[in-house]
Amino acid sequence: MAGKLRYILFTWILALASHTAMAQIPNRPYMSTDTLRTPPKKLSDDQLIDSTRKRLENKKDSVIYTSKFIKVTNEHLLNDSTQVFPLDTGLNNFENYSPLYQPKHPYIGLGNLGLAARPLLFEPQKSIGFDVGEHFLDQYMLNPQDITYYRSKVAYTNLSYVAGGLTEQVFRGTHTQNIKPNLNIGADFNTIGSKGFYTRQNVSDINAALFGWYESKNKRYNLLANITFNNMKTPENGSVVNDNIFTPTTTISDPLNATVRLNSSRDYQRNSGLYIKQFYYLGRIDTIKQKGAAKILPTQRVAYTFYYNTRSYSFSQNESDTYKVFPDYFFSPTLSRDSLSLKHLQNDFSYSFYLRGKPTSFVKNELKLDLGVTSDIYHYSQFINDSLQAYTNLTNQLRKVQNATIQNIKLHAALSYRFSDRISLEGDLQQIAEGYNFGDYLYDAKLTLAGGDKAGKIILGAYAQNNKAPLLYSNWISNHYIYLNTGINNQKINNLSFNYINNKLQLDLKAEYFLINGYQYFAALSSGGNDAAPAQLSSPLNLLKISVGKSITWRHLHFEDYLVYQKSDYQNTIRTPQVYNYANLYVTKLLFNVLNTTLGVNVRYNTSYVAPSYAVGIGQFYNGPNVTFSSYPLITPYVKATLYRTNLLVQYDYANQGLFSDGFYTVNRYPMQSRLLKIGVSWSFYN
User: I need a surface site. Which of 360, 421, 483, 518 has the fewest CB within 10 A?
Assistant: First the structure.
């Protein structure tokens, strides 16, 4: 994988070098578009983009293109209106490129980027409908709703590469351009190719997408389309045999050759889909002028969404279970070929009605009603490798153990009323009216009270959720785990939240209360064992979660902090820390009049908690032995800078290793990463 990444980067560098050598670049200050001696007439953003296109068509190299010619949006932003925003190519959060270490959504896992992981904080899944139950690689997936759409009359390309030698390599690439003024197409390509810190952590993850956005000339019809592809290959090493490697007498001198419990086991996941969403505006269309682009507001809208998705989950084992990683076997002691394939066809129809007065700079006194119906059809098949077929002469043959087609009909409605730009009320209702998940519901409400820039705003929220147990909890057959008629009932979540946001004070305070009946989780059947199985609390679970985000700026000095406190009456069941903190201190400076530089250090810390264990073969974090590890801060200094269209990054992860301890764990038996120097670069091209 490392060789492939080096080849890709080498090819891009050659292409860019040849392009630069052949281009005619005027000798003038960067980002200048003034080619006249007298001040030109000031143009609007749309006129400037059209002027750029004419110059490009006439092949006159008289403009240096920048991100101001690119506008972006996504499906969520287009749900109510047609709106776009300027492209952000700055340094913000560049050092937090990893999906596992986002400041507000940290993960714990098996020790390396690309391996199985789960959220560190309590974050219940807020969705209803059919669910397989395997989410241990979800954070690396590219889904249709993740796609960014562009409005660009200048071709735009961004290439990003972060590497810590061969230990960790991440590459992301995006290219997009308007082939017509109202039609944009593009592509995303992302890879994670990591050798890891310990034996058999060499992951190979690829996801890619082709996407397009068409808008009719009269602004009434929009089409969003994308094709996504995910291919995840993740080794399972069963953890290092030595459970106490961070003591002075047992430190491993060569982690890449450390003895592990599994040497020939692996997870495979594939997820591909075709997604098409169309919406048409009926009746009057209102327009609000905004900085950068106009916002198109419909008074009626009809929408149709088509989605076809195929997913496969596979686990392979080709070795003896010498170290007793698995609780037992049902079909073969040395050979596993467990797999589940899933096909999903979705059709969604919706109608939206908006009642408002004539808008000015903002919308006020607006009533909105959405009504829709969603049809979901699923077909899944599960296979195992059976070496014990006594009724035949065949051995080691794949056998289909499950084959079913199910359907759900979901009704959904949304009602909102905006009294002014200060007060708004929103409600969202989702109900499975028929099918496999009959009775599932998600009711969500939110009240926003805004008092201006100085006073800030308050958001009061509440939701109630009822969902059937995932397939893995109720009907699962594999070589090492079989769950049939488990008796796991529906899980019901009730949530209340208070959120105070003050942009002037750079303060974000949120308090949440969860009441969960029938909490679903995995736990060992025997005390301290590895026989993980679905479990459910018989008593209600209460949890209070308070988070505070605060930023302070003084001249060139900046400080950001995010603090979370969470307390439950079943703290050892949810297995999360009571306190988590992320702090980031940095200074910004313009060097040599061209280099925007940030020098900083971030610190992550969480209190000790009972660590979960990990069940190989089903990708579940479960409550096993009651093991609690010491917890220490993780310190990462970094330098990042922008030079024209290039962002640069140098950071040293876990620089304090050896100061408080020689290493750390977040999951039982799986040591986490060691210190690592990383170098990153992100290029943006407009041509």
Answer: 360
Closest CA to 162 of 194, 137, 138: 194
Angle value at C-alpha 416, between 410 and 422, nearest 5 degrees:
150
Look up residue 20 and give its amino acid: T
Torsion of CA 613, 615, 621, 622, to 10 degrees: -70
Structure-token pair, residue 422: 């200060």
C-alpha 89 chain-centroid distance: 19
CA-nearest of 491, 492, 493, 496 to 513 is 496
Helix, coil or strand: residue 129: coil
For residue 611, give both structure tokens: 């660590």
**Rounded-to-integer distance, Cα 219 and Cα 151, Å:** 14
CA–CA distance, 49 with 61 (Å, rounded to integer): 15
pTM of full prediction above 0.70: yes
**Residue 334 DSSP class:** S
Q: Using one digit for the tens of pLDDT, what is the confidence trace for 177-210?
A: 999 999 999 999 999 998 999 999 999 999 999 9
> What is the rounded average pLDDT for all residues in the chain?
88
Backbone angles phi, psi at 288, to 5 degrees: -115, 125
Q: Yes or no: say if 293 and 45 are a contact pair by the CB < 8 Å rule.
A: yes
The letter for the amino acid at 591 is: L
Which single residue is written with the structure tokens 């496999």? 436
CA dist., res. 505 & res. 550, Å (int): 8
* Residues whose CB falls within 8 Å of the CB of residue 47, separated by 6 or more in sequence, listed in order: none
Distance from C-alpha of 441 to C-alpha of 461, rounded to nearest angstrom: 17
In whole angstroms, how far apart are CA 459 and each of 213, 221, 423?
Answer: 33, 33, 10
pLDDT digits (tens, 9 = 90+) for 16-59: 433 433 333 333 333 333 333 334 444 454 544 454 444 444 44
Three-state secondary structure of 405-439: EEEEEEEEEEEEEECCCCEEEEEEEEEEEEECCCC
Q: What are phi and psi of 206, to 5 degrees?
A: -135, 130
Helices (H), 58-154: none
Backbone CA torsion sign across 685, 275, 411, 475: negative
**How many Å is the maximal CA-CA distance in the chain?**
92
d(CA 301, CA 368): 11
652 and 640 in contact (C-beta within 8 Å)? no
341, β-bridge pairs: 312, 381
If DSSP codes are grouped into helix, strand and coil, which group holds residue 19? helix
| Percentage above 70 pLDDT, the chain | 87
Q: How many helices (H) and strands (E) does the chain have?
A: 5, 36
Residue 428 has pLDDT above 80, yes or no: yes
* 171 neighbors 4 (Cβ within 8 angstroms): no
Q: Give the dihedral of Cα atoms 520, 544, 634, 584; nearest 10 deg.
A: 130
Tokens of residue 518, six digits: 């029938």
Q: CA-CA distances (angstroms) from residue 549 to 509, 546, 578?
A: 6, 10, 17
Instruction: Give CA–CA dist 135/127, Å, rounded.
Output: 13
CA Rg value for the chain: 27
Taking the CB of residue 485, how many other CB atoms lie within 10 A of it? Answer: 7
The predicted-structure confidence for 313-372, as pLDDT tens digits, reads as follows 999 999 999 999 999 999 999 999 999 999 999 999 999 999 877 665 556 788 999 999
Residue type, 460: L
Positive or negative, the CA dihedral 617, 620, 622, 627 is positive
